[in-house]
Batch of 2 targets.
Target 1
Amino acid sequence: MALGDNFLEKIEKEAKQLQALTDDLLLESRQKWLGKDGIIKSLFAELKTISPEKKPLFAARLNNLKEFCEGLFAASDQKLEELKIAKSLANEFIDPSAGLLAAGIGRISPITYLERKINQILKPFGFEVISGPEIESQYYCFDSLNIPPHHPARDMQDTFYVEGGYVLRTHTTSIQARIFHQAQQKKDRSLPIKIVTPGKAYRNEKEDANHQAMFHQYELVWLDHDLTLAELHGLIEHILKNLFGKERKVRFVQKFYPYTEPSIGAQINCNLCSGTGCIFCDNCGWVTVGGAGMIHPKVLIEFGFDPEKVSGMAFGLGSSRLAAQFAGIQKLKPLYEGDLRILGEV
Amino acid sequence: MIVQLKLLEELIEIADIDHRTLRGIFDILGLEVKSIETTEQNIQFKIELLANRGDHFSHLGIARELAAYLGRQLKPLNYGKLPEKNNKLSIKVDLESRLCLRVNLLELELNNFKLPDKIARFLPADEIGKRPPIVDLLNYLQLEIGQPMHAFDIDKLQGCLRFVELEKATEIKALDGKTYVVPAGALVQRDQKEIVGIAGVIGCANSACDHKTTRVLIEAALFDPISIRKTARAMGISTDASFLFERGGDFENQLLALGRVTHEIDIQLGKAAKDTLSNRKLFSYEDKPTEKREVAISPAYIKHQLNLPSIDTADLIKRLTAIGFKISAKETANTEQEIIFEVPSWRLWDISRKQDLLEEYTRVLGLDKVPSKLPPLSYNSPPPNKTLEIQESLENLLVNRGFIEVVTKSFYSSNEVDLLAKLSGDSKGQHIQITNSIESAYSHLKITNALHLAHLAARNRRMGLTSVKAFEFCKLFNRKFKDRDQQFEEDFLSIIFCGRWHTGLWKKPPSREETLGAFAGLLKDIRASLKAKDFKLSQAEYPLLHPGIQAGIDFGGGISGYFGLLHPKINSFVGINEDLFYFEGSLKALVNSPKKEKNLKSSDFPAIWRDLTLRLDKRQFAESAINIMREAAASHLQEIQILDDFTKDGEDFRRVSYRLFFESMERTLENSEVDDQISKILKTLENKANLKLAS
């Protein structure tokens, strides 16, 4: 091949004709024009045969030709790529709705949720969260709390006895007794003592949908100078309104607990029947959520505190019942049956 | 207790209050209404009484509370005349026990006494006429004024009536026709021949009145509450009388009650009664005069405690008087400073200090009248609860991986204990037994949570769940714990998994190996969440797990938990035929695990890695080689990862490939020094565990 005007002109003409080809045919010509041994490369190699005076002109024409070809093929490549993508988009289909494989999000139990929430509500008051043994001595569970042997109060809490004279604690108040006792042994009379004791308690009774031999309580104890019954009301109301919303009604009724005097019960209006009466609230429209009172002087004396100088308030929430209310579950049983369909939803 | 509205209306004017409002008042007063039954003639409230209030166990007791709350007067009751206390009855009476606090015996002739209709309407219609009228009358009067009374047929008593403590347990036939064993030490009434009554609990059939009885001895007494309680519990019986006496009766109600008896009899008999008056005799005993207890309270104390703007002293006195308190003769001149109240004879059991009076006043005032006041906030944060913090962090981790927290019971049945004992090859020695459970399923305390969570998994799978991912923080109970910590119990975390790691039934589920790997990975994440320094898996022999698919877990302080596949016998026991992956670990060990030191430095120099494939026995842990490699290597060994685990056809060993990453903080490591490290590692592997490169 001799590179001359005519020849170059012929090649340029042929290149222009490439524009008329389809993209597929154009792709077949790529190698011929731009390949390692293609026309463009060969023409550049022939430049050395051109006289020096013509060389710049020829070189410029060759560069234009190269640019023209590259542009032409690049546009064609892009088109082809788009076609390929379009083809695959048109053909490929996977139904995402048929292959859901979620790892899932679990839940903490409504009881734990409730306990954590109350911990948060009480944080500004400075309560320490304490736990204690569930197998308890009768001293901490009863005797130190003004419940002597054969006291009728023990009717309320028929007790599981285990070997060695121990009992399964009937209330988490036993932790309170332990803390007071520790303070007494250390001869530490520093006040206030502010503790909360969430945990399990046990009653040896026949079970039904609403009565469980094992249940949860959340107790609060505050020992200080000059605490009042009105402040106990205030604190309980603060907890319940923060838990259930300001619109829920709270009321207090008389109760008897041997370790408090005066003793009160805290009730909220039933959210399942909106106060009109249902099976959950014994048709009275109110649900008792906890017992409370000012710590009995005898209990204070038992642990070496002077009831004329020191007063205390205690509040025990039935956290199982409260959690059920909170979660909108009508009965306590599902909380302890581990039905994941329910527990995963609440 | 069943409170009858009509009977209540005999004692206090409340006709203007509808029964729903009345229920609300009862609730506030601590008289919890369990149900209301409405008939054409009457409305009955089933009320749960407070455990310390024997005085509430009568309509009069309830009426007193209403009177104080509503500010109304009680209607007066009529009492008949009683004979002089001449103590000379037809039979001899001997009181030989200090458990008798009050004993009053009225001997009288019935002279064809019939139960008046006005009383009969308050007794169950189907029982009228079954018992002699005098017995119905006494039952009615207990309902009305709260004094249990018993009528002996005096002609059936042999010679005398003795109140004695029983020397040895004795069988008796009671009024209800049943036979009971009365425990030694019980206070009983007996005549010359035999026991005729169990004081304060129930009478005996041998001395009971019948329709032919003409002469009766009516006992109105007060007995030691603890003695009555012990006796009734031992006999397995609770009567109206024992219920009241256990809670403490009224020290001064006995003669009043007998007065009510004579009044009703005289009214009914009319003129005929007069003929028998001369034959009435009365025996009366009290161990000591009724205490005149006085308790002082200041209005200022009440005002402060109840956050009231002021205290109306007159109202305070009026309300407490309505429930039986009297202003003491020692009344102070200035009632603003202190008021001294005399405690009524029926409240001597539970009123002794100002706090008791505060409770009385608050109740009858209405707790809804006490304005709430928020106690002061604290500026001192309480010390952190490390265990709780760890627990919360683990909860978050598990919840974010799809696990649901559950709460299972702390108990086991004997069957479950048998299974565990069989699996572990131990006796039942470590199980703690409950000695008095009324539920047979609750005979022991759980030593492991494996069975409960296995049951839970099986139940949920049966209900159609494709995946069970559950965890629980709970106490486990074991005698051997006592040796360690002076307590029988310890906190554990247990996790169970079965089904598909991801929800959905699409395509085939992951293999057992993949699931086990995912489960082990979860535990590794727990380590990361705890920032624990170490996490080692080692071969273990935990009897509740599959012997070939399990590991012991060490978070740095020794093996503190186990995980793997639950033993197939547990699967059979709970009725599930699929793999149950289980972890159980001590929470204390997790909390106390040595923490990893913070290393926030990163190297600017490239890491060099080498791959090794070792021959491992089929039952050898891949992790065991990692532990040896770590021990053998210099500090430049940063990480070891397992690349592959495979067995070629016909080979009786596994090939496990590891990738070891070496990196220096100061410089780029030379290939030669990494190779030296590898040589050292290989030598140690061979020397310590006979582990060689796979060819």
Target 2
Amino acid sequence: MRALLRDVDGLLRGEHDFAAGRGRIPWVRVALCVASGGALHGAALGSLHARLDQMCVSALKLPLLIASSTALCIPSFYAINAVLGLREDFSAALRGVLATQATVAVVLASLAPIVALFSASAIGYREAVAVDGALYCAASVAGHVALARHYRPLIARRQRHAWARLAWLVLYWFVTIQLAWLLRPFVGAPGMPATFLRSGAWSNAYVVLTQAFLGS
Amino acid sequence: MSVAWSAADRLLRGKWGTSEELASGRVGMGASVLLGLGLVGGAVYGAAMGLFGVLRPAHATGKQVLADALKLPLLFLLTLVVAFPSLYAFSALADSKLRFVQTLKLLLVAIAVNLVLLASFAPVTAFFTVSTTSYSFMVLLNVAFLVLSGAVGLAVLSKALRAVYFQPEPSNAALPPEASSEGERELGSSAEPRRAVARPRSDPRPRRIFIAWFAIYGLVGSQMGWILRPFIGAPGMEFQLFRARGGSFFEGFLTALGQFLTGR
């Protein structure tokens, strides 16, 4: 327990194995953080109507969302770094990206009691989605802080790293929004069964949003 | 009694820790003292809040006094339990010098200041309880006192956070030589120089932590208050330890404000 807390503390502060640009990538610790942090927050998301099945499904899906969106973007991220002439710094950049994902998962876990509190208050489905959305944004901000910490020395060395970071953020969010749309529901609408994927899940979030915006 | 009084006095005068202690990541006052002051302060104000339940025309009961004396300190402490993991995460992310236990102690300082100050408002609340029958007025008065004492607690927290991050201006001799070549600015050694160089006095991190803490604690606290209601006891309703679940604090506050403005 003490070792776990020390690891989490080191991750949040960017120290020890998670310090910027240093050493090997701590793959196992990153994977543990994403799996456990994501599962904890996912279970809290699914607890709105005290449905154990939705809690279990969401506990599986949230780490899957974080891990899959990262895995999908890494090849493109490598290519972008290579094109920008930053190939030799890719290891440090990847460390930063992975530490960021672990940070997001850990912060999501720390926010899980708040999600559970709102679920316990029996608030409405739309209110719950709004609260969960706001808390996910807060965790993303924490991720940006971690990414900025890892990228600071890289950008100090080569300004072009700022473009690589921007490319990562655009790409990551573009993919994550669609993946989250595919993997919905996370909260579980009242009266709907807890399923891993909703029927008709394979649609495009951007097309649906555009059509909703245009009113067609 | 005199020990508790002296501790409360020290707390309100800001003698719970020195700037030097905070700058080295420590909080001077003990957690048990802070917890005790918070519990007593909260119980005193909670009892005053519950007086309305004793004096209301229908369903008058002294149980409301007892219930509030328990529920008000519980409100603050349960809020801390729920919010602390995220408060600590954001603090560590901003590279705070306060470690786990010291962060908890600093938050207990802010809560204890808040509750001791609230206790000082207890006679005023009791006076208005005796002299008014307007439930919505009492709701707004209590919200006003909670906001006021909360603001003082936050001011203490804000000042403490600035002290935590304070670093004296470096003398020229203490400044490290500037890295001139590419080789001197190694990736791996980047974290240490960042900490070794003294930051300017206008460090944005305490403000950022403060905003994050304020948003998280405020969000959790308001909803926790909603869950633990009733604190005052609406006229015409029988005594309940907790009301049925549902809705949120913001919904309830806007309803009370509407009723007060329309004279209902």
